[in-house]
Design goal:
Layout (H helix, E strand, L loop, with lengths): L1 H9 L5 E3 H11 L1 H9 L8 H14 L6 E11 L5 E9 L1
């Protein structure tokens, strides 16, 4: 999705970021795209938010080797519900 590529390109090369950052940017700046991702998931799915954010993580991973590099470590950051949790850690390349 183009919005994810735009978000990734705006991150300074060499900086570390996590998937929560991308989700937050999508909600703030690309809310229609965020909702489109959510709409593709079966509404009967338990924990719809988690599934949508997993999809966003898979979309970030499509840029491995070109814009991002997955780090072995995880980040610890706040999710959209205000809860701290572990999250995929990425490096902008």
């Amino acid at each position: 999705m183009e919005c994810i590529e735009n978000i990734l390109q705006e991150i300074e090369i060499g900086c570390l970021f996590d998937s929560h950052y991308v989700v937050d940017r999508m909600i703030g700046d690309f809310s229609d795209d965020y909702l489109r991702i959510s709409q593709r998931i079966d509404p009967e799915t338990k924990n719809l938010t988690l599934r949508a954010h997993q999809q966003i993580g898979h979309m970030i991973a499509k840029f491995k080797g070109t814009l991002v590099e997955r780090q072995k470590a995880q980040s610890w950051s706040v999710n959209i519900h205000g809860n701290a949790s572990s999250c995929a850690l990425w490096k902008r390349i």
